[in-house]
Design a protein that fits this description.
Largest sheet: 5 strands, mixed
Number of helices: 34
Strand order of the largest sheet: 5-6-7-9-8
Shape: globular
Distance between the termini: 65 Å
């Protein structure tokens, strides 16, 4: 009954409707414990032999897991299945086997409880010891190692990363192979146990030493799989990860443990920037010199797949402040989230409790809004708008979270972009109004109202009043609708299946398997009919097939769909403009691009639109831009092929600096900073204002990468003076220059 009610209750949540990873996890936490207690209670009063006890336990475990799965199927019939095959497999490998093992543990517990004075109480407590004990062990491993995932004999697989919707659970098969080996050893042991006249189990010989020997081998194999689990992906330590990565560079207080395949100069540049970040963040936090961390260990993985395998988080970057460690995958210079994760680690001296993060109850109960808010405030991102401006936009479109939800576990109910941005804006506002010491003491557990002399309602009203002073364009409001008006992971159905299927379809498209990509995008739309990304992907597939009629129909429907946000409709308009530009319908392309320009806020897209508009009437330039940005002949953008065409364009128009600008972008993207600097320094004037501003930014990045501080200072001055550069982006690159000087 408990299992049926639990599976029925959670099934009404969108994320748990039908067999899925989330339901598997919920049942893995519930069913084995129930099976252990039920079995322990029942068998503690029965005089059964070893094999009969094992059979009773297995039957109980199977019935309980079948009940949970049947209820899950009913919910699936009610709301629709995400992926019945995958869900059933995860359930079978997770709580189904785990529940049988839980009942088996209950049989062991029943024997231990049999001669206790308070037999029933002992049976319950001992029955719970197994499932709860392995969970406690997983928590200890989480605390003592870099990993955030867990493989548990009762629960199965826990991915660890809340915002990583693409799972990596291939190790569950090898883990359950070890469970099968353990199960066989238990079965053979049960064959040899009989109940004596004194009521105790005793060993009896069956005269089959080969069977006993084989069971001993399987038990040993199971133990070896535990000991060598890092080779199978079941667990890792800092040492095993460092050994697998194979590289290390130290700079200042940053110790970078990196994949040996990464170029040494790139890692050195990263380490130098990391060390400068550490000093700047400590200054921002107001950490006294004597309290500052001696060092921070940065694990830099080759890509997100490697990071997912070794520590559990792929797309999500992670920090463990209590270990003084952060975990990133390689990215562009300057690394976009290095500073954010370093704030988590460097705020540890201000915190309390075992996790060294902001939390109630002595630091045991985290306050996620404050943990993430201080990182957003302490290391602003490279964005056209600041966290304050985005929060002001959220307030005006009425999606700004209330403080009571931002600084509680309700933080996770909204989309991560919404919660992180709003929390960062509020923390930054508190620091401006009341100083760094108030923020650090709040982070350390003090009450913010007590520190400021203002209650939460008053603080919220004052913050809102500040946000209302922000000047926002209509484009910023449209951008906020696209960015923030979306559900969090707990408000979505089938997020793991949808995102994994989408990723597979995108990979199929990139590899040229258009038919498989079409099937994948259609599967996404079956599960999530409102996925504009899947519709765009499908339109791209039709472009590869040169079925431009179907492609145009999809994009036209998107552009005219009132259910879509304005940003999505404008993205479809831009793609329709690209089709028109490629086919020489210049007036139509211009009209569509102008429509998008009126509401767009993304600097990169604005700049690209400006460039396409500027050169739409120039056949040579247009052809180069189509090859580079849009693609021709159904093949998609072709960067390498575009370089020859850009070279011809440069030869035909030596007084136009845009070809050299495009060459410099290619060099910068490939980390050829000296080549990029030379192109930019010798470049003719650029007739596109946003591209001129971007050229100054690129020169600043190249100069910092090369350690050329005077050139970086000159580039920043030109960048900040440009009228199209926002204060948010200017401040971000001023911080980069400050790190270059350290």
């Amino acid at each position: 009954m408990v299992v049926a009610l639990a599976s029925a209750a959670v099934g009404f949540l969108p994320l748990f409707g039908g067999p899925s990873y989330e339901l598997t996890l919920a049942m893995g936490l519930t069913c084995p414990a129930v099976a252990a207690v039920v079995t322990a209670l029942e068998l503690s009063r029965r005089d059964l032999g070893g094999l009969s006890m094992l059979a009773w336990a297995a039957e109980t475990g199977l019935w309980l897991s079948a009940t949970a799965f049947a209820v899950a199927l009913l919910h699936g019939l009610r709301v629709g299945f995400c992926d019945l095959g995958e869900g059933a497999t995860l359930f079978a490998l997770g709580p189904a086997i785990g529940t049988v093992l839980g009942a088996t543990w209950g049989a062991v517990a029943s024997e231990a409880a049999r001669r206790r004075k308070r037999r029933r109480l002992a049976a319950v407590l001992l029955g719970l010891c197994g499932p709860l004990g392995t969970i406690a062990l997983s928590l200890a491993i989480f605390y003592g190692t870099p990993i955030i995932f867990a493989y548990d004999p009762f629960v199965g697989y826990f991915s660890g990363a809340l915002y990583d919707t693409v799972l990596a659970d291939g190790g569950l098969w090898s883990y359950r192979a070890a469970s099968a080996a353990t199960g066989f050893a238990i079965y053979v042991a049960a064959l040899h146990l009989e109940r004596g006249d004194d009521g105790r189990l005793r060993w009896r010989s069956l005269g089959r030493p080969g069977l006993v020997a084989f069971a001993a081998v399987t038990a040993l194999a199971s133990l070896v799989s535990v000991a060598r689990g890092h080779r199978l992906g079941h667990w890792q330590t800092a040492g095993t990860i460092a050994e697998a990565l194979g590289g290390r560079q130290d700079h200042g207080r940053c110790h970078v443990i990196h994949d040996a395949r990464l170029p040494a100069d790139h890692v050195a540049r990263f380490a130098r920037d990391c060390a400068a970040h550490v000093d700047a963040i400590d200054d921002w936090l107001g950490t006294p010199p004597e309290a500052r961390l001696a060092s921070v260990d940065v694990f830099l993985f080759f890509d997100r797949n490697q990071k997912r395998y070794y520590m559990g988080a792929g797309a999500t970057s992670i920090a463990k402040p209590w270990r003084g460690e952060i975990y990133l995958h390689d990215d562009a210079y300057p690394h976009p989230v290095l500073g954010h994760e370093l704030v988590h680690a460097l705020a540890a001296p201000h915190a309390r409790g075992p996790f060294r993060i902001a939390g109630d109850l002595g630091g045991w109960f985290p306050i996620p809004g404050l943990v993430e808010g201080i990182a957003v405030a302490g290391s602003p991102r490279d964005d056209n708008l600041s966290a304050d401006e985005w929060s002001a936009a959220m307030r005006r479109i009425e999606v700004l979270p209330r403080l009571e939800s931002l600084f509680s576990l309700s933080f996770f109910e909204g989309a991560s972009a919404t919660s992180y941005t709003a929390a960062g804006s509020f923390v930054a506002w508190v620091r401006r109004e009341h100083g760094a010491e108030v923020v650090s003491r709040w982070y350390g557990g003090a009450s913010l109202p007590a520190l400021t002399g203002r209650d939460w309602a008053s603080l919220e009203q004052a913050w809102w009043a500040y946000l209302d002073t922000q000047t926002l364009s209509p484009a910023a409001l449209a951008g906020a609708e696209a960015r923030f008006d979306r559900p969090g992971v707990f408000g979505r159905r089938c997020p793991h299946v949808v995102d994994a299927t989408f990723a597979t379809a995108a990979a199929d498209l990139a590899s040229g398997d258009v038919d498989a990509a079409v099937e994948g995008y259609r599967r996404v739309l079956d599960l999530d009919p409102g996925s504009h990304s899947a519709k765009v992907g499908l339109a791209t597939c039709y472009d590869r097939r040169e079925d431009h009629r179907s492609q145009t129909e999809i994009l036209t429907d998107l552009a005219g769909d009132p259910a879509m946000t304005e940003a999505v409709r404008m993205y479809a308009e831009e793609l329709l403009g690209d089709l028109a530009l490629r086919e020489g319908r210049i007036d139509e392309a211009r009209e569509r691009y102008q429509k998008v320009l009126a509401v767009e806020t993304n600097e990169s897209r604005l700049r690209t639109l400006d460039i396409k508009l500027r050169y739409a009437d120039d056949p040579l330039a247009r052809h180069a831009l189509v090859t580079l940005l849009i693609g021709d002949d159904g093949q998609g953008p072709y960067h390498e092929g575009a370089l020859d065409e850009i070279g011809l364009w440069r030869a035909a128009a030596p007084n136009d600096g845009l070809p050299d600008y495009l060459f410099a972008r290619q060099h910068l993207g490939r980390r050829h900073f000296a080549l990029a600097a030379r192109r930019l320094d010798g470049m003719a004037p650029v007739d596109v204002p946003r591209a001129r501003a971007e050229a100054h930014r690129m020169r600043l990045v190249a100069a910092c990468a090369l350690g050329d501080v005077p050139a970086a200072e000159q580039a920043l001055a030109a960048y900040r003076a440009h009228p199209l550069v926002t204060a948010s982006r200017a401040d971000y690159y001023a911080a980069l220059l400050a790190r270059c000087r350290r």
